[in-house]
Amino acid sequence: MKNIVLIGPSGIGKTTIGKYISKKLNIVQIDTDDLIEEKTNMSIKDTFDIYGEDFFRTIEVQVVKEIADNKNVLISTGGGIVLREENIHALRSNGIIFFLNGKIETIVRNLNSSDVDRPLLMNEEDMYEKIKKLFLERKKLYYSSCDYLIDVDDKSVESIGDEIIFYY
Ligand code: S3P
């Protein structure tokens, strides 16, 4: 079986929905952000603060290269995974790519109830505008990178997960 790959903006629910799917299908979940933290031995926030975004993206590319050979796993990715074309190329070789799409309001709601640090969204007076800007900049890339687009607005984790499993 191919891998299930989840892409989409920060706060759309990739990790949470991935957890549901991997449990239901009894497959392993691999999270690129977790692997980056293991590799650097520091939080993503510290990596951004100390070494900057370019360094983070370089490690992200390495991690994707290392995991893309897997089969039958669920891969949840960081929101910026689409910024490097080689990531999508590698993930597509063994995977079906699902773009989780939703309204900015949905993202803001999810982020407000999350305790994960998001360096690109922190210390922002107007989080709504920042999320909107980032999402608009990347939306084309999400569309062109995916096999399926899944709308998450007003749906439960279970129903989104089941929809992905249906297409898979
Ligand atoms: C990022 C999203 C984060 C993480 C890093 C950069 C981004 O992952 O990879 O902070 O560029 O949008 P999540 O999408 O899980 O928040």
Automatic annotation (TrEMBL):
Its EC number is 2.7.1.71. InterPro entries: P-loop_NTPase, Shikimate/glucono_kinase, Shikimate_kinase/TSH1, Shikimate_kinase_CS. Binds 1 Mg(2+) ion per subunit. It is an enzyme of class 2 (transferase). One of its GO terms (cellular component) is cytosol. ATP binds at G11, I12, G13, K14, T15, T16, R118. Keywords: Amino-acid biosynthesis, Aromatic amino acid biosynthesis, ATP-binding, Cytoplasm, Kinase, Magnesium, Metal-binding, Nucleotide-binding, Transferase. Pathway: Metabolic intermediate biosynthesis; chorismate biosynthesis; chorismate from D-erythrose 4-phosphate and phosphoenolpyruvate: step 5/7. The keyword NAD does not apply. Substrate binds at D33, R57, G79, R138. Mg(2+) binds at T15. It comes from the Bacteria. One of its GO terms (molecular function) is shikimate kinase activity. SUPFAM superfamilies: P-loop containing nucleoside triphosphate hydrolases (SSF52540). One of its GO terms (biological process) is aromatic amino acid family biosynthetic process. Its cofactor is Mg(2+). It catalyses: shikimate + ATP = 3-phosphoshikimate + ADP + H(+). Belongs to the shikimate kinase family. Catalyzes the specific phosphorylation of the 3-hydroxyl group of shikimic acid using ATP as a cosubstrate. Monomer. This is Shikimate kinase. It comes from Sporanaerobacter acetigenes DSM 13106.
